[in-house]
Amino acid sequence: MTRLPHGRPSDGAPADAAGELCGRGEETVLLDELLAQARDGTGGALVLWGEPGVGKSALLRYVHDRAADFVRLSHSATRPEADLAQAGLHGLLRPVTDRIESPTTARAAALRAALGEGGGPVDRLAVGAAVLSLLCELAERQPVLVVVDDGQWLDEATGLCLGIVARRARAHPVVVVLADHSDPATRPWQGLAAVRVDALTDESARRLLATAAPLADEATVRKMIRETGGNPLALHELAALGGDFDETEYHRQGRSPRVGPRLRRAFRAAIEALSPPARLLTVLAAAEEHGDRLTVQRAGRASGAGDAAWDEVADAGLLRVVGDRVLFRHPVVSRAVYEGCGGAARRQAHRVLAATMPDGAEERAWHLAAMAHDRDENVARLLERTADRSRIRGGTETAARSLWRAAELSPAPIDASRRLAGAARAFWDAGCAATAERLLDDAERLAPGPHIARRSGGLRGVVEFTRGRPEVAHHYLTTDMNHVSDPGAVLELGTLALRAAWSAGRDLQDGALELLRELDVDGPTVSPGTPAWWRGDGPADATPAAMCAADEADVRARATIPPLLPPAPLGLAWGIDGPMGDVLRRRIPHLRRRDDPPRLAIALAQAAMLDNVAGRWAEAESSAVEGLRLARDMGADHIASHCRTSLGWLAAARGDERTVAEATARSLETSLPQGVRALSAAAHWSRGMASLFHERPEEALDSLMRLTEPGHGAEHPTFALLAALDTAEAAVRLGRHDLADERVRALEAWARRTGAPWARLAGYVTRALVGGAGAEDAFRAALDVPGARSHPLLHARAQLLYGEWLRRGRRRIDARVQIGGAIEMFDRLGAEPLHRRARREQDLTGPPGGRGSPGAGATHRLTAQEERVARLAAERLTNREIAVQLRISHRTVGHHLGNVFAKLGINTRTELNCVDACPEPP
Fold first, then answer.
1. Residues 6+ apart with CB under 8 A from 555
2. Are 586 and 579 in contact (CB under 8 A)?
3. pTM for this structure?
4. Which of 411, 663, 836, 867 is within CB 3.0–4.6 Å of 648 for a Cys-Cys bond?
5. Other C-beta atoms lying within 10 Å of the C-beta of residue 847
6. Do the Cβ atoms of 109 and 120 come closer than 8 Å?
7. 156-168 and 124-138 helices cross at what angle (nearest 10)?
8. Of all residues in the chain, what percent are helix, strand and coil, respectively (each to 5)?
């Protein structure tokens, strides 16, 4: 028997772009080979077997369609005819009954007797020989294909007959292909070539869904594949529902999604073929849900299902026993069995299972709940106690399902509302955001009141913040801080309220800070430095070094209370990004172990930005991509936008303008309408960086000025500070020294207040950019700032700007030192546009006339600067545009062009093509 690797289509599976069934390459090759052999005069047989819905019928249709030049005989067996002798043969041969000779021949007599048209006895061997003879006669003119589906329902006589035919067909151009649920080794076609058709691989399932559900998003596709186990029919039926397998119902039941009617009918037929004890045993295993063999065995014995029933279900391929576990082939099989057995059988199974368990068993409460026809407070209390124990053990989703079912059984609306609120919080903590929000809405409609905030831990504000509505979130969060009794929950709500106020770019922090001051979680919660983080002020008499040291110590001391840490951009602004990054790197593995998707996604988004500025770009990208996936799965648009912000910043630094455009557009789609100024500001910063690094200062300044424009949706003080160097550089290149002076003053004031290394470095560099007698001292001071190298991109930019300043002052050797250091860092980081700019500047620091272009003719006499000016002029840039790019005056550009014209013996710019066609110097 041939066993092929996993991979294949479904009943009704769509073809891929090449016209083949999805994932069925090896099976279709075998079928095509059978047909080709028959065309050459050699027959054969093949049995396709596997569970219902796995795609056997699709393969039969495939071979039937490929055999257009054959005599095609097909039959699909049905359960009602399984006990009618020769019923299958009757259906199969009906199209060719006119080829049966007169009744006088032995073959005709055997066939007519088998088809119920004669009165004599039926000799099975004679019937088999007669059918084979008839098929061989048909094959004399053209090959014959016999296709039989659902062979498990063939009557015994037909099965034996087809076995005789298939084993003897090789000498004639006759092909027999059968499909069956069971292993052929136990069927009448034992010894025939057989292929087990297994579930689709994930890749093949994706191809199928790309056609069957083209609008399904990535999260839905992953869930559909996971929950169906790659069963093609199950995938098709989910796709027919638009990929909606009622996630809330799935979370409520804790089972695989509901199966479609075709798959349910297929498994119901398989169950009905079992004896009553074996049927009950199968339903008990599906109802027990945990796969505990001893529990199912006890319940089976109490119901009269003994060893014979176990053997029967094992032979049918529905169940298998592995140690102390009883397993279905896949959860979708368990669900199909459970749904297909009928309500009475399900209730009986739960009753028997509950009777075998002690009163205190958690599973007993669930079985009693499954039996309940009406509201029952006693069972609801049992489920609530079960939920409490589950949460202690970390079974958050199990606790959520228990509370939800308890709410359904609660007679009093206030009890139902309270339990729904608890279920909502548990589902939220388990990462099931959509279900949590629905249950919270239900709780508020059923019986509104402060009990909802107490039981859900103030979930409404958390949901609003995650959805990207910071001002609404702030209102709920600060209100619910007065209703929640758990100090840890109050702490989380308060710090989230601070984040909401910061995200909205408004001064709303004071109320939450006052409540946090009164809170005590293992000591005072709000340290003297904490309000400064959020309000942007600091003690007037504190020195920068003291502020920085105090903040770093405070961050490390509060590593066990992560909610107190500010958002990553704010922590960066204060210069505490180093210790914050350490805290997050320790916390992320812990959140993964806890399986806490909401907090993990937030931590990953924060870590991504801190890794960006620290030069750990690969780690930043990995964290942002993982956080984005988690956020999409939860429907957390706000967190997803934070991840896109990091990806957009990284793309700007790498020179990937397409990704910048896509990431920032997606962020602005949600942040601008919802008033999330922090995200809007981050998007404009990324756009400004991308334009500046590609030497489009006017476009860059247009984006960056939005960060300080009063009333604009991207106005945000924190991001205005972080982008101050970019704004100043763009302004200087456009001659807007007034704007550059404003940014210098803002950076210097912030550096004095916080002592943050990045702010001191950026402040010195912007001071140098605006010019003056102290420019070189400012550049040197910037590069000497302690801790400046912890921001490698910023430090390398300072080196580049200093090197450019030196080169313009004709100090070429000093310039090459600074620019060389910048090139090395840009290369290590992968900052492509800045790397190109630095290489160009380095090229310009070479000795005059030392860079002749091979094959350039007269151009070898041009200096480095003259050749650069000539190339830009050949690109039809104006003198002023060339001046902006090379940071020289437009009059100097004219002087260089005059030299170029004289050396090359030309009179117009259009004649500069000879320079533009020469290779760019290395």
1. 565, 571, 576, 579, 580, 583
2. no
3. 0.57
4. 663
5. 9
6. yes
7. 50
8. 65, 5, 30
